[in-house]
Automatic annotation (TrEMBL):
Function statement: DNA repair enzyme that has both DNA N-glycosylase activity and AP-lyase activity. The DNA N-glycosylase activity releases various damaged pyrimidines from DNA by cleaving the N-glycosidic bond, leaving an AP (apurinic/apyrimidinic) site. The AP-lyase activity cleaves the phosphodiester bond 3' to the AP site by a beta-elimination, leaving a 3'-terminal unsaturated sugar and a product with a terminal 5'-phosphate.
Gene assigned in the entry: nth
Naturally occurring in which organism (per UniProt): Liquorilactobacillus cacaonum DSM 21116
Keyword rRNA-binding among UniProt keywords: no
GO MF term list: 4 iron, 4 sulfur cluster binding; class I DNA-(apurinic or apyrimidinic site) endonuclease activity; DNA binding; DNA N-glycosylase activity; metal ion binding
UniProt protein name: Endonuclease III
BP term (GO), one: base-excision repair, AP site formation
Cofactor: [4Fe-4S] cluster
Amino acid sequence: MLSDKECLKVVEIMGKSYPDAHSSLTADSDFHFLLAVIMSAQTTDKAVNLLSPKLFETYKRPNELAEADVADVMELIKTIGLYRNKAKYLVECAKKIVSDFEGVVPQTRKELMSLPGVGRKTADVVMAERFKIPAIAVDTHVTRVSKRLRMVAQDANVIEIEEALMKKLPKSIWIVAHFRMIYWGRYQCTARSPKCETCPLLEMCAEGKLRI
Ligand code: SF4
């Protein structure tokens, strides 16, 4: 298992390759960003970005989406996976923001997770990206990369991964660490064919050494 110091070094090395790692979802407000993150589950950010301008233009504020017909929302997002459920979540989420939070996206994890369609990962992404509240959202990339690098235990679940990374890394870098690990998983340490031969982390990576 990598030490705290080594984990920090890993994140620094990732930063040399991806100094500008950030969310690829495009949105012009906290509300629209929340919708984009909900839609991005099991779908690429690119697919969400393609449909979101029309959706956001149609429903600018929570009260407008809260009054929408779910079928109309489905029609606007039908190009992404699970669009039926997601359309229902979007409308329900908007209703709750209007009824419980005076039409403003809440900023705490507990409040965000009280919204339909919002799990821990979505809440963490919104907190980090929109409100700059330190958080490490654990998605498939963060899970794979942190396990391959032995930053966390091989049998750790998402909550254990999040807790382990938060313990090992200084709070001041949680947000950038999260985005760098996502980029690393997307472009360097991909699920099917990680580029171990050219990886700047190979010397520190138990999995990489086994693979080459
Ligand atoms: S050496 Fe291979 S397994 Fe390790 S982080 Fe790099 S790409 Fe991933």
